[in-house]
Amino acid sequence: MTPGRPSSRVGDNDVRETLAAFTVASEPGNERRAMEKVADAVKGVGLEPPKMERLKTAVAEATMNAMEHGNEYDAGKPVYIEAAVSEAELSIKITDKGSGPPIPEAETPDIEAKLENRQTPRGWGLFLIESMVDELRVSGGEDRHTVELVFRLGEEKGGK
Amino acid sequence: MEVRHLEVEVVRKDEAVVLHMKGEINGFAQEALAEAYEKAEGESPEAVVLDFTEVDYINSTGIALIVGLLAKARASGRRVIACGLSDHYVEIFTITRLSDFMSLVPDEENAIREAAS
Question: What ipTM describes this predicted complex?
């Protein structure tokens, strides 16, 4: 652990160290800013390059969902992002102001229906996020939604 | 970080028209991609090649734009071939099953060969 960084105890032997905590304004394109900032903050964790790429995509998509669906691209409503690491996992929490509908379950998009114009071509974000992470935790209430992206450390998820 | 808006160069190569894309494929890319595809369609090629060599970011909105483009190509009986994708985006195209509906090849040379086959 890096001295001087905040840490908290979440389990018997699992101390979390906060690697980054920041906000971005809900403006199109800011998901990439969030993605690069998180990637930079977690460099020392030692993720394999493919896992780092998955993390970047998951962070960008979750931030975009928070800006669009949670905050309705209201630049005055920030998205809060916190990255923390423990011995067992790397966690990135992305929280919006929760003015939109609750976050739905991720569903596998029907590409045939999209190609035949029976469905909108959109609707890939949550599916992509779930495909990129080891675990997706969703929580929230009337005033916020939080998506937690979890990457387990010291093991590789099968096929990912 | 500045958004790198998509620039597309449309080039006829034998049986194919190649869309050389440079920048990011996100919501801002809609107009550039639609214009480029329309120009490619005007050439009535056998195949449309999407060259991702100089694309460094594709988000879910970009995936939707590619799905829309693929739908148009299928409606007019044209094949779509993608080249120059990084390993990560090959994984994304596989997960989303875009790879079931377009060929993924390493580079433009292979794409032109694939278009002629």
Answer: 0.91
**In Å, how far from its chain's centre is CA B94?**
15
Question: In this structure, are strands A144-152 and B7-13 parallel, antiparallel, or unpaired?
Answer: unpaired
| A20/A6 Cα distance (integer angstroms) | 10
Amino acid present at B77: G
The answer to whether B27 touches B63, Cβ cutoff 8 Å, is no
pTM of the model: 0.90
**Mean per-residue pLDDT pooled into runs of 10, chain A (160 residues):** 51 80 95 96 95 98 94 94 96 88 81 92 94 94 91 66
Least CB-CB distance to B71: which of A33, A117, A131?
A117
Residues of A in contact with B92 (CB under 8 A): 57, 128
Amino acid (1-letter code) at residue B54: E
With CA atoms as reference, report the closest residue to A47 among A143, A156, A148: A156
